[in-house]
Amino acid sequence: MPPILHLVRHAQGLHNVSTSNHILHDPDLTALGEQQCSDLRRRGSPSSFPHQQIDLVVASPMKRTIRTALLAFGETILEPKSLQVVCLPELQETSDLPCDTGSTREELEGLFRGQAVDLQYVTPGWDRKIGRWAPDREAVQARARQARVWLKNRPEKEIVCVTHGDFLHYFMEDWSEVDRTGWANAEYVFF
């Protein structure tokens, strides 16, 4: 039986504050983004995450998605179950803007050293927007399909997937040629 998927758009990143911040390479969260993670984590708050039966937390290997996963689910899911955030490059954002281009595995290892982050799937070249990582429609559709298959074939019963607004439209196959995502920061759905 396929797992239940909880799809989460990352919390507010520095690039979400102003389009002038799109020049920032792989930006981290803002203070508001950290608060949004706290709201997801807190039980009983209007925006708190609804389910605690999570077996796996997967995220795009970008700073803002990894940080969202750690801050939102670390205390409630990762630590009690000794889980790690599994970083899956297929979940990266769709454009080649600096803000949507990831850091190297070595940079991520240094930044998240000692934290519950699994970078085994982050291979050389994932952070270059060419080939399978290119920002063209066919490549993004293929990545979304690969991510769906990977998640569907997992043995876990309930999975959190932290990714990006534009990519979520490709993942859910609901893209309607709009120029912006319809997802709010830290918004989630499950199915």
Automatic annotation (TrEMBL):
SUPFAM superfamilies in UniProt: Phosphoglycerate mutase-like
Domain of life: Eukaryota
GO terms for cellular component: cytoplasm
One Pfam short name: His_Phos_1
Gene Ontology molecular function: any one: phosphatase activity
Entry protein name: Phosphoglycerate mutase-like protein
Species of the source: Sphaerulina musiva (strain SO2202)
